[in-house]
Amino acid sequence: MTSFTSIQDAINKASGAVSIRGWIYRERGSNKLKFIVLRDSSNIIQCVFERTKFEKCWEEIDHLQVEASLTISGTLKQDDRAPTGYEVQVSDFKIIGKSENYPITKDQSTEFLADNRHLWLRSRKMVATLKIRSTVFAAIHDYFRKEGFYEYHSPIFQSVQCEGGSTLFSVDYFGKKDVFLGQTWQLYAEPAIFGLEKIYTISPSFRAERSKTSRHLTEYWHAEMELAWAEFKDIMDHGEKLLKHIVQKVLQENKAELEILERDASKLLPTITKPFLRLTYTEALKILKEKCKIKVEWGKDLRTIEEEKLTQLYDVPVIVTHYPKIVKAFYMTENPLHPDVVQGCDFLAPEGFGEIVGGSHREHDLEKIKQRLLDQGEDPAEYEFYLDTRRYGSVPHGGFGLGVERVIRWICGLENIKDAIPFPRTMERYKP
Ligand code: 4AD
């Protein structure tokens, strides 16, 4: 049986006999020669068929089209004109799967590519992004495991909201109406820290976002952590260390992919080498006013445009802390000195990418939590299971959630978050 090497290994080998397999990325031909650029998951390489060697099956070779799959054996040769510097002079080949009139050609509309997402996944840019995505997931797992966190899982079907009722997806659960898709693992994670103390997850979260922005999905992957015996600063420190670790891993492992995406990797370096900037919400408003000429009324949440302008000023993520209580979720600890602000933070990615992490210290006062639920129109009785966490041996604790696609979008420098996930789900798109 022929043993195949990856295209990258063939390029590394540089000369001699080789057998490779993959899909046709590009093809062109003349009466005497057929040039095929073959791709596999590792790279691309030019392969040349000479008619004199394949007279009997020339028609078949001549008709090969983009995305047909084949195996090729031949001899490697250096050739500076070839796209990756090497060429295979083909001595034998086998067509494995034909492809005719592949629908994706140059200059297709975004809509067309979205309709054909299942095919677009093969594009070089998508493949590069998906490799970086794989590194990001691995980096999250290694960070938390090295730090002694247990992987823990909350249910996806949930009976209460956590991040505001307006973005809840209801599910028809055997006719019952009070079942929702989880916006976060949090309310089901807090009870677990009383046994496990340090926990994390990477899981899908769901938000019925009506906004058509470049950073909202209705289904996204959420890396979350919850830590017992934690002060607010511990939460921010973990967020900062995690992001540094992720970016470092991508820079180590995905140089080639960042190049394919035309992402200037030097823009990511300060994230690893410099401390993140920590600003209070009130300080952020002052900077917005003085440096960006944008006036935000105290008490209003920062909008996308304001986050963009603020983060364009910096080359490292900015951690904005102490937001007004009224714009944040019910579970955040009131600041002891200024109870109108909370010990919550958003990490904003530089270069205008905006929020990628949201976290907080958790309010320990049972009565305050109940009151804030009531203020938000919620019935505390529905939250009894959660309130028990404050009744029996409560300890200071907190956590954060990192939007994995938001981080990938920033690292890859993508225009839109939709390209950070294989099959994006938005208000308008749930097919294919
Ligand atoms: O700030 P959020 O809403 O915080 C929580 O869900 C907390 N319960 C997390 C925790 O403390 N365990 O969401 C956290 C992050 C955001 O910073 C953002 O990166 C991402 O989730 N996110 C989204 N990503 C893509 N599409 C959306 N619609 C998102 N909504 C939030």
What is the count of distinct domains?
2
What string, H for helix and E for strand, traces the elements in order?
Answer: HEEEHEEHHHEEEHHEEHHHEHHEEEHHEH
Using DSSP, what is the number of strands?
15
**What's the CATH H-level superfamily name of the largest domain?**
Bira Bifunctional Protein, Domain 2
Helix fraction, binned, reads 25-40%
What percent strand? 15-25%
Distance, first to last CA: 38 Å
Short description, anyone?
This protein has 2 domains: 7-97, OB fold (Dihydrolipoamide Acetyltransferase, E2P), CATH 2.40.50.140; 115-420, BirA Bifunctional Protein, domain 2 (2-Layer Sandwich), CATH 3.30.930.10. The protein is 30% helix and 24% strand. It is built from 15 helices and 15 strands.
Describe this structure in words.
The protein has 432 residues and is an alpha+beta fold. It has two domains: 7-97, OB fold (Dihydrolipoamide Acetyltransferase, E2P) (Beta Barrel); 115-420, BirA Bifunctional Protein, domain 2 (2-Layer Sandwich), CATH 3.30.930.10. The chain is built from 15 helices and 15 strands. The chain has helices spanning 7-13, 58-62, 110-115, 117-120, 124-146, 186-189, 193-196, 232-253, 255-260, 269-273, 281-292, 304-311, 366-375, 384-387, 404-412; strands at 16-29, 33-39, 44-50, 69-78, 86-97, 150-151, 157-158, 180-181, 198-206, 219-228, 277-280, 318-321, 344-349, 354-361, 397-403. An eight-stranded mixed β-sheet has the order 6-9-10-15-14-13-12-11. Strands 1-2-3-5-4 form a five-stranded mixed β-barrel. Strand 1 (16-29) and strand 2 (33-39) form a beta hairpin. The two termini are 38 Å apart. The structure holds 4-amino-1,4-dioxobutan-2-aminium adenosine-5'-monophosphate (4AD). 4-amino-1,4-dioxobutan-2-aminium adenosine-5'-monophosphate is lined by residues 162-163, 183-184, 186, 207, 209, 216-217, 220, 222, 224, 355-360, 399-401, 403, 405-406. 4-amino-1,4-dioxobutan-2-aminium adenosine-5'-monophosphate binds at residues 162-163, 183-184, 186, 207, 209, 216-217, 220, 222, 224, 355-360, 399-401, 403, 405-406.
